[in-house]
Automatic annotation (TrEMBL):
Protein name: Uncharacterized protein (DUF58 family)
Source organism, top-level taxon: Bacteria
InterPro entries documented for this protein: DUF58
Chain segments carrying region Disordered: 1-29
Residues in DUF58 domain copies: 254-369
PANTHER family xrefs: SLR1927 PROTEIN, SLR1927 PROTEIN-RELATED
Residue ranges, compositional bias (Basic residues): 1-10
Keywords: Membrane, Transmembrane, Transmembrane helix
Membrane-traversing stretches: 65-87, 93-112
Length: 449
């Protein structure tokens, strides 16, 4: 092979000495670049942290004080001043002066201090859907001089209500009454009341908070269930089972006395008649324990998003009505959802918990998974209510009922606006179709029949 061909072969061969040298050089260069970037990141981290602290200290308060329009005017003034200074444009300098003059006038409007004593009073912090939530805001001038008129803002959820406070003399008060709409179930953050000062151009806006924030619970709508419609709730004796016991309140039969039996259970009349000791035998009973499994999966309710939300509200109201009835009857209650159990130690805590629940499409967490979890967490329940939407199929209900322990009565309630009230059975599962909350009492009477 000629020397020229040998050199070509070496250049083409990746394993040649020159190729290996090039790879080593490239590797060292990449390592050096990586080390340089690591060093740069290490030195830049404190600088970025310092800039963030400076931003939180200066720019965030400026963002609360200066409106977006104010930033635009300030930026315009700076730009026009630069153009006028560089190119000698008198028009640009005049525009910069006018913009700066607007900012100075705006500053004059937001300066000053006013001392107020503001009280925010809510008539009730817990109301039902449709009830009136009434409150009052009392503003008192506690300074030694008369105050100028001010605007008070009261955030209520995502909305903001504005109140105009007139000029107040020292120790003078001004009261405003307000009503909060309660058309839907929600937990509304009310407050804090804040005074607002801003210029007529809307460049600067100064806010001062005067009160704390309160929570207003708009509980779901409920319907009263009388004794006959609440036939699923057992009396104090509990629900008898097939398990026999030597001591209980549900009498079963008499049997011969055995060593160790409690003498208080000896039936003396039968013993005298038969000539040998006879003792009472009982059936074990189960205290009434209601388990309510409320599905939060909106995919099981209406097809459209708005319809699903309305149907879900009916389901929450049905669960709240059943839970309140159990609370009034002083029965043990458990309410479970896909996100976890709801506090049921008191009726108010249960209603607060049901007010906070939110429905969302969760295809991986169906009513079947919910009932399986409920059976694991409440194994001693006497009645299990499965509350879901009209989109739940009979197959899903049948599969869900298979996770209910034997001897436990299961009732499924399918909720949906416009549905015809009906009662059906899928094996041992009683299925109630609920078109409106007013039909709940009638359907429960049918289920108890």
């Amino acid at each position: 092979m000629s020397p020229r061909a040998t050199r070509r072969a070496r250049r083409a061969d990746p394993e040649s000495g020159r190729g290996q040298a090039l790879r080593r050089t490239a590797g060292r260069s990449a390592t050096a670049v990586g080390e340089s970037l690591a060093i740069a990141r290490e030195y830049a981290r404190p600088l970025v942290e310092r800039l963030r602290v400076l931003g939180d200290r200066f720019f965030e308060p400026a963002g609360r004080l200066v409106s977006p329009l104010g930033f635009v005017v300030a930026g315009t003034a700076l730009l026009l001043w630069l153009l006028g200074a560089i190119f000698g444009w008198q028009e640009a300098l005049l525009g910069a002066f006018m913009a700066a003059l607007l900012l100075v006038i705006a500053v004059a409007f937001v300066l000053g201090r006013t001392d107020y004593d503001v009280r925010l009073e809510l008539n009730r912090t817990r109301v039902a859907v449709g009830d009136r939530a009434v409150g009052a805001m009392v503003v008192k001038n506690v300074s030694k001089r008369a105050s100028f008129g001010a605007t008070m803002e009261l955030p209520v959820g995502a909305a903001v209500a504005a109140f105009r406070v007139p000029r107040l003399q020292p120790d003078a008060e001004h009261e405003d009454l307000f009503t909060i709409p309660t058309r839907r179930r929600a937990v509304l953050a009310v407050g804090p009341v804040r005074s607002v000062r801003q210029d007529p151009f809307g460049l600067l806006r100064r806010q001062v908070s005067w009160t704390d924030e309160y929570e207003l619970f708009v509980h779901p709508q409920t319907t009263a269930l009388d004794g006959s419609s609440a036939g699923f709730i057992r009396d104090l004796e509990g629900m008898p089972t097939r398990d026999l016991s030597n001591s209980d309140v549900s009498f079963h039969a008499l049997r011969d006395y055995e060593a160790g039996d409690d003498r208080r259970h000896i039936h003396w009349k039968s013993s005298a008649r038969t000539g040998q000791l006879m003792v009472r035998q009982f059936e074990e009973t189960r205290r009434s324990h209601l388990a309510v499994a409320l599905s939060l999966n909106l995919a099981e309710y209406g097809e459209a998003e708005a319809d699903a939300a309305d149907d879900f509200e009916v389901a929450v109201s049905a669960a709240a009505s059943i839970g309140l009835q159990a609370t009034f009857e002083q029965r043990k209650l458990s309410v479970l959802t896909q996100t976890g159990p709801v506090r049921t130690d008191t009726g108010r805590n249960m209603m607060d918990g049901l007010t906070r629940v939110e429905g969302r499409p969760t295809p991986r967490h169906t009513v079947v998974d919910l009932v399986r979890t409920a059976a694991d967490q409440v194994p001693n329940a006497s009645v299990v209510f499965i509350i879901t939407g009209a989109g739940t199929t009979a197959r899903q209900l049948r599969e869900a009922s298979m996770h209910v322990p034997l001897g436990v009565r299961a009732i499924a309630i399918r909720c949906g606006h416009g549905l015809t009230a009906a009662r059906a059975n899928i094996g041992d599962l009683t299925v109630l179709t609920l078109g409106s909350l007013d039909e709940l009492g009638l359907m429960l009477r049918r289920a108890a029949a």
